[in-house]
Amino acid sequence: MASTRLRRTVTSALAVTLTAAAAVGGTTAATSTGGAEAAPTTDKAPSTLAFGGNGQGGRTDAERAYRDLLDHGKNAKILTAAHRGQWRVAPENSLPAIEAAFDDGAEIVELDVRLTADGVPVLMHDTTVDRTTDGTGEVSSFTLAEIKELRLKEHLGGAQTALTDERVPTLAEAMELVADRGLVNLDKGWPAREEIWDVLVDTGTVRNGLFKSDAPVDEVQAFRESHPDALYLHMISDDNLASFDEFGDDQPVGYEVVFGTEQDAVARAPFLERMAGEARVWANSMWDGLADHLTDEASLVDPSRGWERLVTTFRASMVQTDDVEAIERWLRTGEGDAVPRGSVRVQAEDFAPGGAGVAYHDVDAGNRGNLDMRPGEDVDISDADGNVRVSWLRGGEWLTYEVDVPRTGRYELSARVSSPYTPAGVYTVSFDGGPESERVDVLSTTSHDKQEVQASGVVQHLTQGRHTVRVSLPDDAFQNWNLDHLQLDRVR
């Protein structure tokens, strides 16, 4: 829980565990093995800013998060915001996703608010219910009773995503749930701010809710003047850079900074220094265009390519992420997605040398991806928000990898994959030219660009030293998925 875990301020370079690759046949070897754990980092001293108002002295996680939100000093705690809740374990914008986000360490959940036909604020990102429920049509065309009849789809939804038994929550239900847990970033809700305000008042959660917009400053200030207890976060980019000065001495609690490149005026050090002196700085790491490619996926490879730079260079003290558990691990240890001790990982693009017919078979000519990492070879290598992977996997294709096993033993294979389809695909595995395994199903991650590790159930006894692993895609099954990496974990 957020109240008990160790957190630190990131004010200097972070310790990063790097793995070295060995040369294999004139190319870079594809394997890395887990090593010793990084040394513990320095814990941050707690904020001295007292929680004001009800005299409870910050006894709940929500009160502590509120206290920390108001602290924008140099030693302010880095706050984690879960994008649409923890959608990796429950439907986005659902009550279980909210609970899971706080359980995994977030202080803030970002939720999207729309109004029903009868004026009730409910949680829904899109203007329609099509992507995330079994219904169709505009949110505003449903009454509350009608929208409550719909069932939410798994994770990020989509046309082929399975239904769950979860229902569309009202904002009131969500705020009652978060009252003692943390804060809520009320995205998409500015047009419904009065209805949202009424919910916060009725549920006693005014201090839990963060209003947000990029509206003209005079419109924002009119709302703040008539609702003096409202917490407000302003979205800022080069398009409305003057907003910061227009707020004058009455600054919002924070700014959500959006920059396409670090050359944007809003991303330059002098401006960010001024902003950080007056308010919290919120950065988004979900995909490329939000903070010049400083993404979750890039951070997993090396935090200095994402989260670390957002904090140390761009003064972010709140980071919105699709990878809550990973960013929490980074805040504790300084590591991204380190290889576990004793495990072996091979990146999908680092297939063995030898060319077509020896190292791989691809059913279409050329590289359909956007990365020319293996010139002259036909494997489809692409970049998705900092994640380099083999894409457009199709039936009849296969890839061979060389792995260096550090210790004799039994190893289970897993694969980090992505696909919006159900079924997504099937593969088999063979070791050192031996027989193929039973078929392994690739499960939908409900997005081409959101990867997850899926265990295969394939266990193989391997001796210390180099082995080959072949992944084959049967041509009698539907195949449309992406492969980020394979991993062999020792079975103890």
UniProtKB/TrEMBL annotation:
Pfam families named among the record's database cross-references: CBM_6, GDPD
Gene3D superfamilies noted in UniProt: Galactose-binding domain-like (2.60.120.260), Phosphatidylinositol (PI) phosphodiesterase (3.20.20.190)
- What SUPFAM superfamilies does the record tag this protein with? Galactose-binding domain-like, PLC-like phosphodiesterases
User: Could you tell me which InterPro entries the record lists for this protein?
Assistant: CBM6 (IPR005084), Cellulose-bd_IV (IPR006584), Galactose-bd-like_sf (IPR008979), GP_PDE_dom (IPR030395), PLC-like_Pdiesterase_TIM-brl (IPR017946)
Q: Sorted alphabetically, which keywords does the UniProt record give? A: Signal
Ranges of Low complexity composition bias in the record: 28-42
Native organism = Isoptericola cucumis
Task: Name the CDD domains for this protein.
Answer: CBM6_cellulase-like, GDPD_AtGDE_like
Signal sequence residues: 1-29
Residues forming the CBM6 domain are 344-489
| Protein name per Swiss-Prot or TrEMBL | Glycerophosphoryl diester phosphodiesterase
The superkingdom of the source organism is Bacteria
